[in-house]
Write a structure and sequence with these properties.
The chain has helices spanning 2-16, 21-29, 35-42, 102-118, 137-153, 173-177, 195-202, 208-212, 214-221, 231-242, 283-290, 335-350, 368-372, 375-388, 403-408, 432-439, 441-446, 450-465, 469-474, 486-496, and strands at residues 49-51, 74-81, 84-91, 122-126, 159-163, 166-168, 180-184, 189-191, 226-228, 296-299, 307-314, 317-324, 355-361, 393-402, 418-421, 426-428, 479-480. By secondary structure, the protein is of the alpha/beta class. It has 2 domains: 2-242, 2-enoyl-CoA Hydratase, Chain A, domain 1, CATH 3.90.226.10; 260-431 and 466-499, Alpha-Beta Complex (2-enoyl-CoA Hydratase, Chain A, domain 1), CATH 3.90.226. Helix 12 (335-350) runs parallel beside helix 14 (375-388).
Length: 514
């Protein structure tokens, strides 16, 4: 028995070397960690339990029978993060460039199936050259098996993809189906076709970084939700994200301790909204003043910056925030903002995370580019997402709420639970100037001084309609509140909504306007 135990220990030590010390050194020389080093950084110390350590590929062509490494290019297993269980896989670039084979895929599918049965999140650390060409269609079938599991697991358990190297071709579609994608600057790439193929087909010269680097996907395509400077920072923030999420759709997000005796008004909130209604301000200043410990974890920070999405805690509870940003495009809703927010709302609703909407929106962005690219269809995605959501929903209108955008931003009419307005709120079909130019067009044109008459009518309209009280009279907002008391009101409302139950009509699923 002693010899057998020694043999087992040796085989496990050999497996830990992956493709060998030379390839590990090459990985380090690129500034990248190995598959196992990444796991050690990500999970609680000593918690990782590996499975399928000894799995090897079954291919014999092209000399593969002479290259057979234990684990076959991916480390899989289960661990804990902040004491909570997770399933994970980490692709090993030192073995065949992390390429996906039949058995490589089987290992990933196995942990995903177990995660669904046990109700725990799945984290994928991606660093792969793509499908293993030597295995042909078998490797492609492996990708499809993973795609299917990603789809079936969607809305059942959170799925997080961490791109820490190349991710190309069919490989990109697994992360794309998952809930959140992390990338690391200067070392991670995602693209359907690489620069060489692009040049051949379209004659465009483009670098790896410009085509599919972290900053490109974080700011232009919106594929990446989070980007960080290095792998250590990236993995640390994966841990932070998980702290806001439940283990599965039937679980609840972790709730942190909260000092209920220290809830008091925040006078700074009374001074944030400018006297000039056309002057911008930073909505993040409001967010930081109403959340616990000024801690806001933003999602898609560099993409569609006219809308803000992210996680926070209010009264210890995990909350998903969607807020218009007056500092960017006046907070208007456009195609990218609508899709970004709709995706975030649907994630929060799928996993029972209450929503907070901070509203200052002048409407949808006009213009041929937006219309021809489908602002109607894309804007409808956000409307659909809010309407469908059954989690607790609270909206605070800080200033503008004009036109259809007022309806879309979780208004009372689409099942908002509590809708509050600040005294500075302006709720109307359109802004005062546009409304006056339509309503009083004839009077203005016939006036001795049209410009003076226009300004007079604007002031009259603003005084009569550009306030929250007509809306409050109708019950479309539940209360007009002092800005300084916003946090107090939110804590009280979310506590009341803990037992909220709401349902949608029985159906297979809706048909969101994709």
């Amino acid at each position: 028995m002693k010899e057998k135990i020694e043999q087992l220990n040796k085989l496990k030590e050999d497996a830990k070397l992956g493709g060998g010390e030379a390839r590990i050194k090459a990985q380090h020389d690129k500034g990248k960690l190995t598959a196992r080093e990444r796991i050690e950084l990500l999970v609680d110390e000593g918690s990782f339990e590996e499975i399928d350590t000894f799995v090897k590929h079954r291919a014999n062509d092209f000399g593969l029978d002479k290259q057979n490494y234990p684990g076959d290019g991916v480390v899989t297993g289960f661990a804990k993060i902040d004491g909570r269980p997770v399933a994970l896989f980490s692709q090993d670039f030192t073995v065949f460039g992390g390429s996906l084979s039949e058995t490589h895929a089987e290992k990933i599918v196995k942990v995903m199936k177990t995660a669904m049965k046990t109700g725990i999140p799945v984290i994928g650390l991606n660093d792969s050259g793509g499908a293993r060409i030597q295995e042909g269609v078998v490797s492609l079938g492996g990708y499809a098996d993973i795609f299917l599991l990603n789809t079936l697991a969607s809305g059942v358990v959170p799925q997080i993809s961490v791109i820490l190297g190349p991710c190309a071709g069919g490989a990109v579609y697994s992360p794309a189906i998952t809930d959140f994608i992390f990338m690391t600057k200067s070392s991670s790439y995602m693209f359907v076709t690489g620069p060489n193929v692009v040049k051949t087909v379209t004659h465009e010269d483009v670098s790896f970084e410009d085509l599919g680097g972290a900053e490109t996907h974080a700011s232009k395509s919106g594929v990446a939700h989070f980007i960080y400077e290095n792998e250590v920072e990236t993995l640390s923030n994966v841990r932070k994200l998980l702290g806001f999420l439940p283990l599965n759709f039937m679980d609840k997000s972790p709730e942190l301790g909260f000092d209920k005796t220290n809830i008091k008004p925040e006078p700074k909130l009374d001074k944030i909204i400018p006297d000039n209604p056309n002057k911008p301000y930073n909505m993040k200043d409001i967010i930081h003043l109403i959340v616990d410990n000024n801690d806001f974890f933003e999602v898609h920070k560099d993409y569609a910056e006219n809308i803000i999405c992210g996680f926070c805690r209010i009264g210890g509870m995990a909350i998903g925030v969607i807020a218009n940003q007056p500092e960017v495009l006046a907070g208007v809703l456009d195609i990218n903002a609508s899709v970004k927010a709709a995706r975030f709302v649907r994630f929060c609703d799928a996993f029972g995370i209450p929503l907070l909407v901070l509203e200052d929106v002048p409407g949808f962005l006009p213009g041929t580019e937006q219309e021809w690219n489908g602002i109607i269809r894309h804007g409808a995605k956000l409307l659909f997402a809010f309407s469908e959501a059954t989690v607790p929903k609270i909206t605070v209108i800080t200033r503008k709420a004009y036109g259809g955008a007022y309806d879309v931003m979780s208004s009372k009419h689409i099942r908002g639970d509590f809708n509050f307005a600040w005294p500075s709120a302006e709720i109307a079909v359109m802004g005062p100037k546009g409304a006056v130019e339509i309503i009083f067009k004839k009077e203005i044109s016939m006036a001795r001084d049209p410009d003076k008459e226009l300004e007079k009518k604007i002031e009259e309209y603003r005084n009569k309609f550009a306030n929250p009280y007509i809306t409050a009279e109708r019950g479309f907002v539940d209360d007009v509140i002092l800005p300084s008391e916003t946090r107090i009101k939110l804590i009280s409302a979310y506590n009341l909504l803990r037992t909220k139950v709401d349902t949608n009509p029985k159906k297979k699923h809706g048909n969101i306007p994709l």
